[in-house]
Amino acid sequence: MTIPSDVASTPSTPGQAPGASSTGATVVLTGATYSQAAIARFLARLSTLSALDNVRLTESNRVDPQANPAVSPADAGKTPTATKQKVVVTFTVTADLHQGATS
């Protein structure tokens, strides 16, 4: 599986997620991207993996760009250079590790 180029995800180790049954392991992935559509593509790709069942988005948060820092007195008369910052969407995806799967 290839992770979409506009999605950054942290590696995950199978474990037990809160509220999960004691019979199976759960995989939790966290990451960030620039849109909900990118998260949907990532979920769709994860859903094709035979080692995972019940792939679901468990959390998603929009992180608005920070305001530009205050202008220093030395730069007070200068025209500020505009830098466009992107909104970032952080997410958590949870999936059940298929019984008998090793990775």
How does this structure look, described?
- The protein is mainly β and 103 residues long.
- The protein has a single domain, classed as Alpha-Beta Plaits (2-Layer Sandwich), CATH 3.30.70.
- 12% of the residues lie in helices and 32% in strands.
- It is built from one helix and four strands.
- Strands 1-2-4-3 form a four-stranded antiparallel sheet, covered by helices on one side.
- The longest helix is centred in the middle third of the chain and has 12 residues, at 36-47.
- The model has no long low-confidence stretch (mean pLDDT 78).
Question: Characteristics of this structure?
Answer:
about 100 residues, mainly beta, Alpha-Beta Plaits, 1 helix, elongated
SSE inventory with pairings:
Elements: E1 7-9, E2 26-33, H1 36-47, E3 52-63, E4 88-97
Antiparallel strand pairs: 1-2, 2-4, 3-4
Task: Compose a concise summary of this entry.
This protein has one domain: 2-Layer Sandwich (Alpha-Beta Plaits), CATH 3.30.70.2830.
- SS-based class: mainly beta
What's the total count of β strands? 4
- Radius of gyration from the alpha-carbon trace, in angstroms: 19 Å
Tell me the domain tally.
Answer: 1
Coarse shape: elongated
> Which stretches are low in confidence, meaning pLDDT under 50 for 5 or more residues running?
none
- Would you state the CATH class? Alpha Beta
- Say what the CATH topology is: Alpha-Beta Plaits
* Major sheet details: 4 strands, antiparallel
Please indicate the percent range of residues in DSSP E strands (runs of 2 or more): 25-35%
CATH architecture: 2-Layer Sandwich
Terminal-residue CA separation: 13 Å
Helix content: 10-25%
Main sheet: strand order: 1-2-4-3
Order of helices and strands: EEHEE
- Give the averaged pLDDT, no decimals: 78
Number of helices, where a helix is a run of at least 4 consecutive DSSP H or I residues? 1
